[in-house]
Design brief:
Radius of gyration: 19 Å
Bound molecules: copper (II) ion
Number of helices: 5
Largest sheet: 5 strands, mixed
CATH architecture: Sandwich
Strand order of the largest sheet: 2-8-7-4-5
Shape: elongated
Number of domains: 1
Strand content: 15-25%
CATH superfamily: Cupredoxins -  blue copper proteins
Distance between the termini: 10 Å
Oligomer: single chain
Length: about 170
């Protein structure tokens, strides 16, 4: 039998978890990863937290992803990249706070806008609101749906765990 106490307990456990699970952002949303897109504007319209994931999707014949230092980002210099990725679907978990810099290493692509700076805020800084309201602003945005799927997966796993705990407690 489920008493109000049990319901309260479940909410106490679930409520904080709903805002802690990492969101998944497709870089450029529906536009993906290519030149002639304002990734600075895109990045500033999202708030990235430790634990979130960013995903670059592109045609590997025409593009790649290079993580670079800040000076090389400013200079669009991909020759001394920290790492280069070219799978056409590269995900990065934002595992620490701070700035990360990515660009496309194909000639002139960075100069035409194919570069993105990601600022990651720490877990401890300000109670993180769910980023969904931001991504939901654009209904044509495919990223919000994939992002949502991820969240649902996590919540489902978490619910299973909570059910197990409750089973042992009561
Ligand atoms: Cu490119």
């Amino acid at each position: 039998m489920i008493s109000p106490k049990h319901v309260m307990l479940m909410f106490t456990i679930i409520a904080p978890s709903a805002i802690c699970f990492g969101a998944v952002y497709r870089v450029g949303d529906a536009s993906g990863w290519h030149p002639m897109f304002n990734y600075t504007k895109w990045a500033s319209s999202n708030k990235f937290h430790v634990g979130d994931t960013i995903r670059f999707e592109y045609n590997a014949i025409f593009h790649n992803v290079k993580e670079v230092t800040e000076p090389n980002y400013r200079a669009c210099n991909g020759t001394k990249a920290i790492a280069t990725y070219f799978s056409s679907n590269d995900s990065f978990t934002l595992d620490h706070p701070g700035h990360r810099y990515f660009l496309c290493g194909f000639p002139y692509h960075c100069r035409y806008g194919q570069k993105v700076e990601i600022y990651v805020v720490g877990e401890g800084s300000s109670p993180s609101p769910s980023p969904s309201p931001v991504t939901d602003k654009n209904p044509a945005n495919s990223a919000s749906s994939s992002h949502h799927i991820f969240r649902v997966q996590f919540v489902t796993k978490y619910l299973a765990m909570v059910t197990l705990v409750l089973f042992y407690l009561f």
